[in-house]
Amino acid sequence: MPPHERRRARIAFSDAAAKQLEALTDEAELHALDRALVVISVDPEIGEPIPGNAAGPQLLQYADEVERVRLLYFVTALKTVVVVAYIEV
After folding, report:
1. What is the dihedral of CA 35, 36, 38, 42, to 10 degrees?
2. What is the DSSP string of 13-67?
3. What is the model's pLDDT at position 85?
């Protein structure tokens, strides 16, 4: 891999997010989710921190205003992005 190419983060889903995914049937919703997942896989730190308990992982939110979706997620020490929720806005 050339030095200028960044490796994408691995994406995983919490149980709650996986259930949300199972319920998606509309192609436009799936496209919006895919687009947002690509963005955070390329740059996991792009999201804004959500204030909360310092004991757990730092939750981030990424909002895509074009696709009108928001992802809540955290990044593990091994740079895996764990999606907690998918929200349409």
Report:
1. 140
2. E-HHHHHHHHH---HHHHHHHHHHHHHHHH-GGGSEEPP--TTS---EEEEETTT
3. 85
- Residue-wise pLDDT for 49-82, tens only, equals 988 767 778 899 999 888 888 999 999 988 899 9
**Rounded Cα distance, 62 and 69, in Å:** 8
Q: Would you say the pTM of this structure is higher than 0.70?
A: yes
Residue 31 CA to residue 38 CA, distance in Å, equals 11
Q: In angstroms, rounded to a whole number, what is the distance separating the alpha carbons of residues 29 and 80?
A: 23
Q: Rounded CA gap, 56 and 82, in Å?
A: 13
Q: Are strands 81-88 and 69-75 parallel, antiparallel or unpaired?
A: antiparallel
Tell me: pLDDT of 27 over 60.
yes
CA 10 to centroid of chain Cα atoms: 10
